Amino acid sequence: MNNNSEWFLRPGVLRSTLYFQSDCGYSLMIMDNRHQEVIYLPLKSIEQLLPPGRFRRVHRSYLVNMEEVAAFRYYRTQLLAVIRDYRIPVSRRYGRDLLSSLDQL
Fold this sequence. Notes:
This protein is an alpha+beta fold. Helices cover 29% and strands 40% of the residues. The strands form two sheets. The protein has a five-stranded antiparallel sheet. It has a three-stranded antiparallel sheet with strand order 6-7-8.
């Protein structure tokens, strides 16, 4: 694990992270102060490093902090995760599992 990955795994940093977005082999970490950090790891590697349960894959390009999701809404036929002013697309593939797990709560 390099310094870059150690940095974003700190609990205070994870608490202020809204979501991760994949971007051509690296990832963007979007934080609550609208700050963005580049993480030089693919989303799949980040997903494996994160504590289980708090962050959830909702799309092949997005990992969201479930504690920050205010709602899931449909816009036309697209399911979206609403996090503050952001609308994150939820793919059909991940959406089915996500909605069924939320129904069990």
